[in-house]
């Protein structure tokens, strides 16, 4: 296919679509940008549910320096600083890791449903490809050794060099944490295959009910493994509500990755002014502890409010306890169990309900009908507006479905009566060979 004049002037990176923004995941944000909801000025606006900004009290009164790594060892002490590489948010951190670990054309396995922007962060500029490890609702989307092996074998058969496995723990979009047995299984798997494990723990301190979060850093203290294969990514964007600060980190147990990552960090430096401000803020233990406690309590309250509101409409969500979103099951609203039907339903929700949800297909989900919806970006009044919009929409869909069922049933009976009248021996002609003289 001939390239346009403009495309001929640009690079392959500039003109390919691996940036991932041609996706429903980003289209919902665009709908919000074009017609943003406001309770007074634009009550019929779009975008409720997905723009990630927490309505929590502003951060204030900060004073000295720690980096959030996990809820257990919430901050890394100065003795661990040698293993930290700073970057422009988790986006830059994940890309830095990929540049350090893989060549263009190499692949990383990723359990699906997975964070849609992994495609962009890990692959757009690096040339690395992602291979989904299909997980499904039969076991609540748990990652199994069988699914990992199947994905790995498919890659081997396609002559794709698998360099590692990347996970999000807690999961985005599922809002679940990985249990100890699963984490041990993942570490055993990558150790057997001699491939890397990258654990994105960006929601580590946004767990609001049991079970608690377990970092992969704890798991490798308990079992034998090659620590050079273990790398952790973190950011202040979610747990501390500071996405605009663009502060991410790579914590690697591999000296070569740390050294290379620091050289590469020149392309995404965190300003010294930002570092100084955060150093002052995060060393205030009392503030950080109170903030995370308040964050957890508010997330739990909002999660309960939202999911119970959905339950009243007959909508269930995957049981979750972390993150800013729920994995909503709308399979019963699909006209057919297909991804085409999922996209049709998604467009109705975006255009009619004006609720910004993301379809499961944008998360590489293997089952149609699942949607991610954020609950932590709205005040309580706006949550009620969102729930009311969903309720009205669901009732309309149920009425349409009932009418269609009744119409089909009527047609079925009409057709059946017609068939019976044609086939009835009482209606046959005396000349019919089936009628005795």
From TrEMBL:
<comment type="similarity">
    <text>Belongs to the class-I pyridoxal-phosphate-dependent aminotransferase family.</text>
</comment>
<dbReference type="GO" id="GO:0009835">
    <property type="term" value="P:fruit ripening"/>
</dbReference>
<dbReference type="InterPro" id="IPR015421">
    <property type="entry name" value="PyrdxlP-dep_Trfase_major"/>
</dbReference>
<keyword id="KW-0663">Pyridoxal phosphate</keyword>
<dbReference type="InterPro" id="IPR004838">
    <property type="entry name" value="NHTrfase_class1_PyrdxlP-BS"/>
</dbReference>
<dbReference type="InterPro" id="IPR015424">
    <property type="entry name" value="PyrdxlP-dep_Trfase"/>
</dbReference>
<feature type="domain" description="Aminotransferase class I/classII large">
    <location>
        <begin position="80"/>
        <end position="390"/>
    </location>
</feature>
<dbReference type="Pfam" id="PF00155">
    <property type="entry name" value="Aminotran_1_2"/>
</dbReference>
<keyword id="KW-0949">S-adenosyl-L-methionine</keyword>
<dbReference type="InterPro" id="IPR004839">
    <property type="entry name" value="Aminotransferase_I/II_large"/>
</dbReference>
<protein>
    <recommendedName>
        <fullName>1-aminocyclopropane-1-carboxylate synthase</fullName>
        <ecNumber>4.4.1.14</ecNumber>
    </recommendedName>
</protein>
<dbReference type="GO" id="GO:0016847">
    <property type="term" value="F:1-aminocyclopropane-1-carboxylate synthase activity"/>
</dbReference>
<dbReference type="GO" id="GO:0030170">
    <property type="term" value="F:pyridoxal phosphate binding"/>
</dbReference>
<dbReference type="GO" id="GO:0008483">
    <property type="term" value="F:transaminase activity"/>
</dbReference>
<comment type="subunit">
    <text>Homodimer.</text>
</comment>
<dbReference type="InterPro" id="IPR015422">
    <property type="entry name" value="PyrdxlP-dep_Trfase_small"/>
</dbReference>
<dbReference type="InterPro" id="IPR050478">
    <property type="entry name" value="Ethylene_sulfur-biosynth"/>
</dbReference>
<comment type="pathway">
    <text>Alkene biosynthesis; ethylene biosynthesis via S-adenosyl-L-methionine; ethylene from S-adenosyl-L-methionine: step 1/2.</text>
</comment>
<keyword id="KW-0266">Ethylene biosynthesis</keyword>
<keyword id="KW-0292">Fruit ripening</keyword>
<dbReference type="GO" id="GO:0009693">
    <property type="term" value="P:ethylene biosynthetic process"/>
</dbReference>
């Amino acid at each position: 296919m001939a390239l346009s004049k403009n495309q001929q002037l640009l690079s392959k990176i500039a003109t390919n679509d691996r940036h991932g923004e041609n996706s429903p995941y980003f289209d919902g944000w665009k709908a919000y940008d074009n017609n943003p909801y406001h309770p007074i000025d634009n009550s019929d606006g779009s975008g409720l549910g997905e723009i990630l900004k927490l309505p929590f009290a502003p951060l204030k009164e900060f004073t000295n320096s720690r980096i959030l790594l996990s809820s257990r060892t919430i901050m890394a002490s100065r003795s661990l600083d040698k293993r930290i590489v700073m970057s422009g948010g988790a986006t830059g951190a994940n890309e830095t890791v990929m540049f350090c670990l893989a060549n263009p054309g190499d692949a990383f396995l990723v359990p699906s449903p997975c964070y849609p922007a992994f495609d962009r962060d890990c692959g757009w500029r690096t040339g690395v490809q992602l291979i989904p490890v299909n997980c499904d609702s039969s076991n609540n989307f748990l990652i199994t050794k069988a699914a990992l092996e199947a994905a790995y074998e498919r890659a081997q058969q396609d002559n794709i060099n698998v360099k590692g496995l990347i996970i999000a723990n807690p999961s985005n979009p599922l809002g679940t944490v990985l249990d100890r047995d699963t984490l041990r299984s993942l570490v055993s798997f990558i150790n057997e295959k001699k491939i890397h494990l990258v654990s994105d723990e960006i929601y580590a301190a946004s767990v609001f009910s049991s079970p608690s979060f377990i970092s992969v850093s704890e798991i490798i203290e308990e079992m034998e493994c090659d620590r050079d294969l273990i790398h952790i990514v973190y950011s202040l964007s979610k747990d501390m509500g500071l996405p605009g600060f663009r502060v991410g980190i790579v914590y690697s147990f591999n000296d070569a990755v740390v050294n290379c990552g620091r050289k590469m960090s020149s392309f995404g430096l965190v300003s010294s002014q930002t570092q100084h401000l955060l150093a002052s803020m995060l060393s205030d233990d009392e503030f950080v502890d109170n903030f995370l406690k308040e964050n957890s309590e508010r997330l739990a309250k909002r999660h309960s409010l939202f999911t119970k509101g959905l339950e009243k409409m007959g909508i269930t969500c995957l049981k979750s306890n972390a993150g800013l979103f729920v994995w909503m099951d709308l399979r019963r609203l699909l006209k057919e169990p297909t991804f085409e039907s999922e996209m049709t339903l998604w467009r109705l929700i975006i255009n009619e309900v004006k609720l910004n949800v993301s379809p499961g297909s944008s998360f590489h989900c293997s089952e149609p009908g699942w949607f991610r919806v954020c609950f932590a970006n709205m005040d309580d009044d706006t949550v009620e507006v969102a729930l009311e919009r969903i309720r009205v929409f669901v009732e309309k869909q149920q009425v349409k479905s009932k009418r269609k069922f009744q119409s089909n049933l009527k047609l079925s009976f009409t057709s059946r009566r017609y068939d019976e009248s044609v086939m009835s021996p009482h209606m046959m002609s005396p000349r019919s060979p089936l009628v005795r003289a």
